[in-house]
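EI: anyone free to look at a 194-residue chain?
SC: sure, send it
EI:
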Amino acid sequence: MAILNLTPDSFSFDGMHTPTFSPTSILPTLQSLLTHNVTILDIGGESTRPHASPLSASDELARVLPTIKLIRSNPDFNPLLLSIDTYHASVARACIKAGANIINDVSAGQLDKDMLPTVADLGCTYIMGHMRGTPQTMNKQTSYPSGIISGITSELNQRVQEAMAAGIRRWRIVLDPGIGFAKTGAQNLEVLRR
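SC: here you go
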C-alpha cells in the first residue's frame, strides 16, 4: 500500500502533488508505485494532522477527483485498488462512483453523519479509523483510564456496531487503530508493540 497526499502540507512527497499541479504530474509517481508492486493506493486531499484546518468537501473533491479519474482512464493503472481518505460522505460517494474501491475514514463516521449510510448504500470496503474529536482537538483527548488497547477496542467496537446498524456488512469493515490520532507518542508506540 502507498499513500498519495494531494495536500500542500503533506507528510509524503513534501507536498509536491498539490492542487497547483496538473493531475498528469503524478504519472511518474504512479509508474514508480507500480514498479514497486504497490497494489493499494490511498489518496487524500485533506490533511488530518494535529491542528490542521478543516477543508470543505468541495475543495477536497477538487483535489482528489481529477487524480482518480486520471488513474481510472489509464489501463496501466487498472490493477491498483484505490482508497479515498476522507471523512466527507459526499467526497466518498463521488470518488467511489469515479472508480475508487475503498473508503478510508479516520473518524469512523463521527465527523459526517451521512458517512455510514453512504457507505452502506455504496456497498464498498470501509476502513474505520480510531480517533477522538477532530484534528484540531484530538491531542487533548488522550486519556484512556482502562488502558490504550482497551480504550481503542471498546470505542472501535461501538463504531462497528453503529456501522452495522447503518447497513454496512461486517465483512466490508477494516479497523485502523489510528496511530497519531488522539494518542500520545508513548501510546502510539504501545499500540504498535501490541
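EI: Residues 106 and 177 are 10 Å apart (CA to CA).
SC: 👍
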